[in-house]
């Protein structure tokens, strides 16, 4: 269909490129919004079904973990099966899984629908999708476009959470589920219409690629599982993989696993209504749109390791400070702006380091495995914070631990940067 639109002259190639980025942005936004929804459902499910927070957090943790684990296999599917088909399959599964949860009655129903099935579906439409689209469609400005697409993760909170929190007023949960399901379904025809598979399908080249540029290497055709695992085997032999995997573990632990899942409930412990708490997350999402896009711009120009040191250090310090705030309007607004600018800013420099270390052909799959580390950290935080709150009556210890982990990640990156430049006999660059 997208090829037909181009051939009929209805959509010029440059405009079609914009439409591809827009459709990818929306798909990533909806996937992130789905993964943020358990934070809104936590209190309503507790009220309606009597499930404790540890049980509800467990389902959220399963979904978050699968969201990451599916990533490398989804990236391999995009090589052998196609980006568009993978997107369509993921969006369809997200819609069906969440719609089926309207009939849930027992905790395992919630784990199956919002944990397992929606985790697999959203994992096919995760950050690896952004990396695959950027590498396939852009020869230049990769950091900027990756920053824009990465910002959709927090923008999902900006768009979804206030509306979902409003729908969940008075403890309602069914309107929330139905809204998410319908939005996922609405994107299926859009993706089918405007997303082609390759630039050549619409008679163009990658953005910034000249007519004399050599064609990109042919993709390795292999079974999805075999391709994903063989890439992991090669990448795992390089220290850079474990550095990025470990720091992205901390990234997930300090963002969607903790703040994305438990911030509304944490604010509720301080007497803040769900709609107001969701507005706080929306403020973070709004400023992340600027912060992560700016991070992509900076990544095209500066050392990505230096950027990561700054991002992790500032994030850790902000989380350490949060439990000691008064939770009044001013202090929370300052936190939301400061933290929001840094929410997903780590993605563009991480993707650039993966591209440099593993090559553009395999980097999306490698990034999928790195993203697994992100979601493993997020799952640990989602479940662990729920258990801490259940047994201690407070979220404060969980936020303090997460803040310490952010500072540690910054120090580890600083140590590797200094060792690398000491070995090369060069000063640490800006």
Q: What structural category arises from helix and sheet content? A: mainly alpha
Largest sheet: none
Oligomer: single chain
What global shape is seen?
globular
Order of helices and strands: HHHHHHHHHHHHHHHHH
Determine the strand fraction and express it as a percent band.
under 5%
What distance lies between the first and last C-alpha atoms, to the nearest angstrom? Answer: 46 Å
Mean pLDDT: 81
Low-confidence stretches: 218-223
Radius of gyration: 21 Å
Instruction: Give the tally of β-strands.
Output: 0
Helices, by number, come to: 17
Percentage of residues assigned to helices: over 70%
Concise synopsis of the structure shown:
The protein is an all-alpha fold. It has helices at residues 2-7, 13-49, 53-80, 83-100, 107-123, 127-137, 142-167, 174-194, 224-235, 239-254, 256-269, 274-299, 304-321, 329-340, 347-358, 363-392, 396-424.
Provide an overview of this structure:
There is one protein chain. The chain is mainly alpha-helical and 430 residues long. Helix content is 77%, strand content 0%. It has helices spanning 2-7, 13-49, 53-80, 83-100, 107-123, 127-137, 142-167, 174-194, 224-235, 239-254, 256-269, 274-299, 304-321, 329-340, 347-358, 363-392, 396-424.
């Amino acid at each position: 269909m997208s090829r037909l639109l181009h051939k009929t002259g209805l959509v010029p190639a440059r405009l079609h490129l914009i439409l591809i980025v827009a459709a990818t942005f929306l798909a990533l936004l909806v996937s992130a919004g789905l993964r943020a929804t358990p934070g809104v459902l936590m209190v309503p499910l507790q009220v309606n079904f009597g499930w404790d927070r540890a049980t509800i957090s467990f389902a959220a943790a399963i979904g978050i973990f699968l969201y990451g684990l599916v990533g490398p296999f989804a990236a391999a599917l995009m090589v052998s099966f196609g980006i568009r088909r993978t997107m369509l399959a993921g969006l369809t599964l997200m819609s069906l899984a969440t719609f089926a949860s309207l009939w849930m009655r027992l905790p395992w129903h919630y784990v199956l629908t919002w944990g397992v099935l929606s985790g697999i579906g959203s994992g096919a439409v995760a950050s690896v999708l952004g990396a695959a689209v950027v590498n396939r469609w852009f020869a230049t400005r990769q950091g900027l476009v990756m920053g824009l697409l990465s910002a959709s993760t927090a923008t999902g909170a900006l768009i979804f959470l206030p509306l979902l929190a409003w729908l969940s007023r008075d403890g309602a949960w069914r309107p929330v589920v139905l809204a998410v399901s319908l939005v996922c379904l609405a994107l299926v025809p859009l993706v089918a219409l405007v997303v082609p598979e390759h630039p050549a399908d619409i008679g163009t080249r990658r953005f910034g690629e000249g007519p004399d540029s050599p064609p990109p290497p042919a993709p390795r055709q292999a079974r999805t599982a075999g391709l994903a695992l063989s890439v992991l085997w090669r990448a795992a032999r390089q220290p850079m993989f474990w550095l990025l995997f470990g720091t992205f573990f901390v990234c997930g632990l300090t963002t969607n696993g903790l703040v994305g899942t438990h911030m509304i409930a944490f604010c509720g412990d301080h007497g803040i209504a769900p709609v107001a708490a969701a507005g706080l997350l929306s403020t973070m999402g709004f400023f992340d749109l600027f912060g992560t896009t700016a991070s992509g711009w900076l990544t095209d120009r500066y050392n990505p390791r230096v950027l990561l040191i700054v991002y992790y250090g500032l994030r850790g310090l902000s989380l350490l400070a949060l439990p000691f705030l008064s939770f009044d309007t001013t202090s929370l607004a300052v936190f939301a702006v400061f933290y929001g600018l840094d929410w997903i800013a780590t993605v563009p420099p991480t993707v650039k380091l993966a591209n440099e270390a593993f090559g553009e052909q395999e980097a999306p799959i490698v990034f999928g495995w790195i993203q697994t580390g992100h979601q493993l950290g997020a799952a640990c935080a989602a479940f662990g914070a729920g258990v801490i709150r259940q047994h201690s009556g407070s979220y404060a210890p969980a936020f303090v631990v997460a803040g310490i982990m952010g500072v540690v990640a910054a120090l580890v990156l600083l140590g590797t940067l200094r060792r690398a430049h000491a070995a090369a006999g060069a000063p640490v660059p800006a």
